Every structure is written in structure tokens, then in C-alpha cells.
Amino acid sequence: MSTPHGGTLVDHTASKKKSARLKEETREMKSIRLTSGLRKDVQNLANGVYSPLTGFLCGNDFDWVLEESRLSDDTPWTLPIILDVTEEQRKELSIGEEISLLTEEEEPFATLEVEELYGFDKKRMARKIYGTEDQDHPGVKRVMNMKDHLVGGDILQFKKNSTDFEKFHLTPKETRILFREKGWRTIVGFQTRNVPHMGHEYVQKTALSFVDGIFINPIIGKKKAGDYRDEVILAAYDTLMDKYYLKGRAVMSILEAEMRYAGPKEAVFHAIMRKNFGCTHFIVGRDHAGVGDYYGPYDAQDIFDEFPDLDITPVFFKSFTYCEKCGGAVDGHICPHDDKNRENFSGTKMRNMFKEGKTPPEHMMRPEVAKTVLRYEDKFVGDQK
């Protein structure tokens, strides 16, 4: 099992006694209402998913992440975890004070000790993280819509966030205990925001063949229109794992976080998070965390050469197709046949079939999985009326 990133698994959740006290004290504190994405960031800071971070970045670390893809102590870190506030909010805050963080429903759930208040250049951040200032990129648009000032400082969570998918939710502390109980020493993590087709299954089982277990870790949170809805992804994987995976070799748990679509830098970030869950390996596919044509198909794999000290082994899959002659999923290392015998696992094609109420062919997706997806009337983000 891997050592937590930075050496220590962060735990910034308050004890029961302190939680009771903070619930009372936060009534008198200044407060900031968070978006759903920021609320999830606080939770991930508190339970160690973002180890070694203990709070929102201050200015020095923010600059290091933008310029070097590292924290100021040289620990690899590729995406800034930051809290943005308005000019009016900034004027009300003071260095050293403790403030209350509220959910979208304005319920206090955490505190922040204000260490630094600073401004930032949004275009610079977009350029450094996403490689573009084009606001058609969803990540760039998100940055440009941020408020103008940032607050840095440690957080402490005293009330657990509820989730609609509680049975699938495990913290890094819990996964490490579970992996240890299972006797797993090597674990491969798999990031997903799609329902599983036969290509995904091929990748997962190929990786699983040389480690002790696989950790399937779907991202649950805000996604772009056209992505599968969270409940559809979880139900589809639940079906696949029940029917086609050994019970002692696979675990699924959700990761509550927003997709940032930062391509290569987000691929490294995803690896770091899975390292904190205990993974020793992490699957990186073609165009991992990409969007549109902003990144090359293998940029998210090539970037790992820049982080020899990441201490988690990336597992790369260049491409995989269905070969009619081989009778299954293959990649270029094992299949000798011509392209005329091969068919790509087209996620777009399968999405379109589902939109028309059709079932993808069995060589593309397990029929039980397809049946599970077709149960849902609203399958995709943006479908809801």
C-alpha cells in the first residue's frame, strides 16, 4: 500500500466534543457560503483526499503550483485548491480570525482560520493550468467566473456532509483499513465519469491481473452537459462488479469532486488522490480528463515523466479496440489483424444509442450493464426538465 502523499494522511475533522462546541461558536462568527464544489473541496481537505494540504492555498503555494506544478516544499501538486471571495467579503475578513463555512443551504459545517488574503490573475491561472485562455473550455470559463480575491488558511470540518450515495462513500482512512484487511499490498486505481463498456472492463482486468486488487473510484459531482448522471454511473458499475468481478478483488467507492477538465495536470492530480486512498498504481487512458481538442491524446500520460518522485506507478493504455477475428477487446501489442477487423469502443456512439432507447451490441457493452442504463429516463447531465 502507498504512503500518503507528503508522508502523512491529513485528518482535519473535529472530535465529537469539539464539534458540539463549534456548532455553538459558529453562530457568532463571520461566515462564507460555499458552492457545492467548494464544499466538496473542504470535505476532501478534511478527510485526507487532498493530503498533504490542510486548507486552502496561500499565495506562495498558489504561485508554486501555477509555475512549477509543486507546492513550495517541492511536493508534486498540479491543481490549486483555493477559496474565492468578493471584494466586499475580503474587506470584512481579518488575518488570524476564525470564520464559519456554510453549505449551499447555509448550514455551518466547517471553520477556516484566515491566514492570508490575496488577489490573483485569472488569465494567468487559466493559461498555466489549462494551457489556454479560451472560455469555450469549461475549466477556463469556471476560472473567469470566479470572484476576485482568495482566502488561504487551514480548515476544520465539524459536520459531515451528507450524500445521496452514502453506501458507496469511503474515506482514505477507511479504504486503507479495508485494503489491509483484504491483504492487498498492490492496488490499482481507476478514475471514471462514464458507464463501463467492454473496453473499460478490458483495461481494468488487464491491470488487475498483476496487482492484488482494483479500486474503482467514480467522480461524483458537477460535470458538463452530456456526461452520464452520477446515479447512472454507480448503478452500471454496481451491476458490472456484481456479475463479472471476483468479490475479493474489487472495491468501488465514490470521489466527491468536480471535474476540472485540466487534461494532463488533472491526470496527475487524480493519481495523487488515489495514492492517498492507498493505491500503488493508477490507470491513465487516452485523453484522461480532457475536453474537446485542447490536449493531445497522450499528453496526460507524457506528463508523468515530469514527476519521477510521485511515488505511484501510472499504468498507461494507448488504445484498445474490439477485434472481430480475436473475438474480444485488444490493444496494439497483442492483435496482429488489420483495422478492417477492428471496431473502436466509441463512447459517443453508445451515448447516441442510449438516447434513442437502443441497446449497444454485446461486444461493446455487457447486456446487464446496458439494461441497467436503459432503466433511467434521465441518463445524462442536462436531461432533467
Walk me through the structure:
The protein has 385 residues and is of the alpha/beta class. It has two domains: 16-157, Sulfate adenylyltransferase, CATH 3.10.400.10; 166-374, 3-Layer(aba) Sandwich (Rossmann fold), CATH 3.40.50.620. It contains 13 helices and 16 strands. The chain is globular. The mean pLDDT is 93.
Show the helix and strand layout.
Blueprint: H1 16-25, E1 31-33, H2 36-46, E2 55-56, H3 59-68, E3 83-85, H4 87-92, E4 98-102, E5 108-113, E6 116-119, H5 122-130, H6 138-144, E7 149-157, H7 172-182, E8 187-192, H8 198-208, E9 213-220, H9 230-244, E10 250-252, E11 255-256, H10 264-277, E12 281-284, H11 299-302, E13 313-316, E14 321-323, E15 328-330, E16 342-344, H12 347-355, H13 367-374
Parallel strand pairs: 1-4, 8-9, 8-12, 9-10, 9-11, 12-13
Antiparallel strand pairs: 2-7, 3-7, 4-5, 5-7, 6-7, 14-15, 14-16
Helix pairs in contact: 5-6, 9-13
- List SSEs in N-to-C order: HEHEHEHEEEHHEHEHEHEEHEHEEEEHH
Q: How far from one another are the termini?
A: 45 Å
CATH superfamily of the largest domain: HUPs
Mean pLDDT across all amino acids: 93
Q: Describe the biggest sheet?
A: 7 strands, mixed
Domains counted in the coordinates: how many? 2
Uncertain residue ranges: none
* Oligomer status: single chain
Outline: globular
Please state the second-level CATH architecture of the largest domain.
3-Layer(aba) Sandwich
Q: What is the CATH T-level topology of the largest domain?
A: Rossmann fold
The count of strands amounts to: 16
Our estimate of the beta-strand percent is 15-25%
